């Protein structure tokens, strides 16, 4: 997966965690520049539906938590590995699966 697509996917999960899904009335009142954000939110929702429960929990434990520094992600992965009883490598693989599912739902080119 390209680095920019990976970063975009992570930011979409974080954006979803902050805003959740808007209702239909809110979608009708969106400004044109906010339409992409709505597409991101719905792509995250569909990606979460496609994922296995353990991948959803990994996303919630790592991407839905606020971070201040780049190293915070590693700390969140370590915490998630203890909490979910998976190895760090398994957590990273679950997160990669989630990013790929988002990219697929959003229609991003992965090649």
Walk me through the structure:
With 111 residues, this protein is mainly alpha-helical. It has one domain (3-106). The chain has six helices and no strands. Helix 1 packs across helix 3 and helix 3 packs across helix 6. The radius of gyration is 14 Å and the shape is globular. The relative contact order is 0.18.
Topology:
Layout: H1 3-19, H2 24-28, H3 35-50, H4 53-62, H5 71-84, H6 88-106
Give short descriptive properties of this protein.
111 residues; mainly alpha; 0% strand
The overall pLDDT, averaged over residues, is 88
Percent range for helical residues?
over 70%
Using only C-alpha atoms, the radius of gyration works out to: 14 Å
Q: Uncertain spans, ≥5 residues at pLDDT below 50? A: none
Class computed from helices, strands and strand pairing: mainly alpha
Largest sheet: none
Count of discrete alpha- or pi-helical segments spanning 4 or more residues: 6
Structural domains: how many: 1
Q: Count every beta strand, where a strand is a DSSP E run of 2 or more residues.
A: 0
The proportion of strand residues reads: under 5%
The global form is globular
> Termini, distance in Å?
8 Å
């Amino acid at each position: 997966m390209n680095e920019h697509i990976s970063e975009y996917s992570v930011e979409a999960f974080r954006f979803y965690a902050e805003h959740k899904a808007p209702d239909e009335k809110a979608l009708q009142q969106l400004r044109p520049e906010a339409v992409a954000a709505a597409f991101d939110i719905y792509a995250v929702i569909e990606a979460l539906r496609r994922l296995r429960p353990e991948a959803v929990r990994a996303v919630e434990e790592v991407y839905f938590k606020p971070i201040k520094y780049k190293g915070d992600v590693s700390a969140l992965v370590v915490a998630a590995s203890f909490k979910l009883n998976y190895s760090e490598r398994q957590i990273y693989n679950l997160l990669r699966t989630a990013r790929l599912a988002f990219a697929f739902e959003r229609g991003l080119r992965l090649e």
